[in-house]
Amino acid sequence: MSDRQTALVVEDSADQRDLLRRYLDREGFDVVAAVDAESAIAAFGETRPVVAVIDLLLPGITGEECVRLLRTRHPECFVIVSSVLDPGEYPDADAALPKPIVGADLRRILRSVSR
């Protein structure tokens, strides 16, 4: 069992999901990745993420609804929303990570995460 904390990535784009997985792994997190909100929600019972990066434009259940459900189940989780949408359209979250994703931006945000 790893001593590393868990990060949840909810992203339907394989390239973006892999990029986030690499960035978060380099920052010392074990990463649980989901291709949609339904898969992420199913993992809530088995995972205690300290940080989650959630794409807003997902197939099926929206990223916004996924954020709401994650906050209900894991209120202590630091939530980062990511999207091509204008940041003014993002739901309430701890941080915003506009696309295209840049590693330096994610590292800056992760400094705010209580570990």
Provide tags for this entry.
23% strand; 5 strands; 4 helices; 5-stranded parallel sheet; Rossmann fold; alpha/beta; 115 residues
Specify the helix fraction band.
Answer: 25-40%
Shape summary = globular
| DSSP strand content | 15-25%
Structural category is alpha/beta
Structure write-up:
There is one protein chain. The protein is of the alpha/beta class and 115 residues long. It has a single domain, classed as 3-Layer(aba) Sandwich (Rossmann fold), CATH 3.40.50.2300. It is built from 4 helices and 5 strands, in the order βαβαβαββα. The protein has helices spanning 14-26, 37-43, 63-73, 103-110, and strands at residues 5-10, 29-34, 51-55, 78-83, 95-98. It has a 5-stranded parallel β-sheet with strand order 2-1-3-4-5, sandwiched between helices. Helix 2 packs parallel to helix 3. The radius of gyration is 13 Å and the shape is globular. The mean pLDDT is 94.
Topology of this structure?
Blueprint: E1 5-10, H1 14-26, E2 29-34, H2 37-43, E3 51-55, H3 63-73, E4 78-83, E5 95-98, H4 103-110
Parallel strand pairs: 1-2, 1-3, 3-4, 4-5
Helix pairs in contact: 2-3
How is this structure best summarized?
The protein is of the alpha/beta class and 115 residues long.
